[in-house]
Amino acid sequence: MSAVLKPSGPSTDDEATSELDALVDACELEAYPGEVMERRIARGDFAPEGKRVVVVNPRGTPPPIRRRPMAVRPASLTGKTIYFVDVRFMNGKSFLAEIQKVFAERFPGIRTELRQKRGGYTEDDPALWKEIEEQGALLVMAIGHCSTCAPAVAVHCMNMEDRGVPTAPLVTTAFTDLVKAVTYKAGMPGLRFTFVPHPVGSKPPEVLRDYVLGNDPMTSTPVMEEIVTALTGALTADESATGTLERPVPRLLGADTDDELQDMFTQARWSDGLPVVLPTEARVAEMLKATHRRPDEVIGKMRPTDTQEDWQYTVEQVAANAVMSGARPAYFPVILALAASEVTAIHSSTSSFAAMVVVNGPIRGELGMNSGVGALGPFNHANSTIGRAYCLLSRNLGGGAVPGMTYLGSQGNPLNYSSICFAENQERSPWEPFHVQKGFRKDESVVSIFRGRTFSHLLEVRAQTWREQLINLVSGFTPTPRTNLTLLVEPLAARTLKDREGFDTKEKLQQWFHVNATLPYKTYWDYQLVINYVEPQARKGVEPFASYLAQPEDSAVPRFADPKAIAVVVVGGEKNAYWYGTDFGYLKSVRVDDWR
To answer: What residues have CB less than 8 Å from 213, skipping those under 6 apart?
Structure first.
């Protein structure tokens, strides 16, 4: 797709129009990925009239796009002030320092300021923005270097353009499609990016200077020339455009054969790459019988990450995805509850996240869900299809899962096929159910959502070395204080922890990990993600991070700041006391009974 996403800059009106057409094509691929399929649908090849097989469109509805004109550019840099603003990710400040040096060498008459914005890369900095605006300055911002900070750079720059400040956002070549899609959907498709080699992180100053003095790999234009032109080139008609672009989604689609529709769903990436049950009107209508909600009721919005746009969806659109997964109508209230959570199962992050779904309450038995032997594997129809439906609806209703644009998992995660979906083994647990811990009654049916990446396996709870074992269980997780922890405890192991080691409540086990799982002070504060997420909170006095920062450098810091954020779920068939620690973190619980 990169071939059609020519980085923008000043150009003729004809070039701008051609570029916008390419952007529209590329960004509409998010709705209909696969260029051939997108064009066939746009031509009406899959209009339902006269077709033998008609299906309900499983796609959610993207919002209209409001065009936002860019800031008027000065004719030159003479007498201007340029702010170089680091968004606090990777090596951005060092990179900008090299750019600042080159500007000082080539334009001795201009004034420059190198600043690091406050907080994490997505956090607003009104005081700095106001200062730049009042100075009548220009803005160079870096560095877009991940699936969330690259869009953050784009969003900050678009907001400054709205305030009349010309900008030159810098992003690495790993995220070209992503930021172009973000700016298209945000109404400023012509935002003038300069792309630089990836990665910038960990590169020494001499390499960064070579990047500055080299060419944009996407355009072969010198980086310095591109930055200057981004700040001073006159706007094209397209870059000054206003108005609204609607993006309607047809309710029904048709084809002559089932195979033709299966091919369409696969090419359009509406499926997970596996065959689906085609969502015919009859099948969708049967699914809808399992809820009292109206088919046209809008029940939520979803997005693949915070810097993407929300798509909204109806009960019927959720039902179409439930049918595609192979779920039975009886499962639909659980699937609706997952959709109503507005939490995507396919979170767009280079970290390759996946989702985990835990079901509690009477509905587990009603649906025949598995909480025992093989509960975490593909051995139960309800577990498997509910999990798959959650992934499919996150893909189709939340505008996600297009690699390079709305899904940026560097390696991906096999759990994205159908999430992890299982019932807690309440009957064989020595502790209260998970949903009761979250404030629900035991007789309520509840679905809970978690997000994470990895599992760590533990063999039993050894009498002599259980403490070391429990610490080792989490030692392989990323060394950052934002690491989450969910323990998936086999009932035999749970009873050992209770009867032999005295953990008679889940809360006591959570507290044990909070106290005993620690990191060396330097490791805690050196890890790069901490700089973005936790250090700004600590310096603003947010507890407990402020107290952690004030500790001696030779001390240890709790890995898990809040014991209540540690989750314990009992699952398994009592064949052996083997169990898991995971870095999955609890996000949200939703009552299923509201969706029957």
So the answer is: 102, 222, 223, 224
Q: Which two tokens stand for residue 474?
A: 């989490």
Closest among 372, 359, 459, 364 to 419, alpha carbons compared = 359
Contact 232, 82 (CB under 8 A): no
Relative orientation angle of helices 332-340 and 381-397, to the nearest 10 degrees: 40
341-360 exposure pattern, b = at least 16 Cβ within 10 A, e = fewer: bbbbbbbbbbbbbbbbbbbb
For each of the domains in the chain, give its residue range(s) and CATH number, in order of start.
42-63+248-428 (no CATH), 66-232 (3.40.50), 454-595 (no CATH)
Point out which residues pair with 24 in neighbouring strands: none
Q: What is the pTM of this model?
A: 0.86
Q: How confident is the model over 301-359, as pLDDT tens digits? A: 999 888 788 999 999 999 999 999 999 999 999 999 999 999 999 988 888 889 999 99
In angstroms, rounded to a whole number, what is the distance separating the alpha carbons of residues 268 and 235?
Answer: 35
Model pLDDT for residues 219-256, shown as the tens digit of each residue: 999 999 999 999 999 999 999 999 998 888 889 999 99
Structure tokens at 349: 């992050």
What are the Cα distances from residue 167, in Å, to 104, 113, 121, 138, 315?
18, 14, 17, 6, 42
Q: CA-to-CA distance for 529 and 514, rounded, in angstroms?
A: 20
CA–CA distances in Å: residue 74 to residues 229, 315, 504: 10, 51, 70
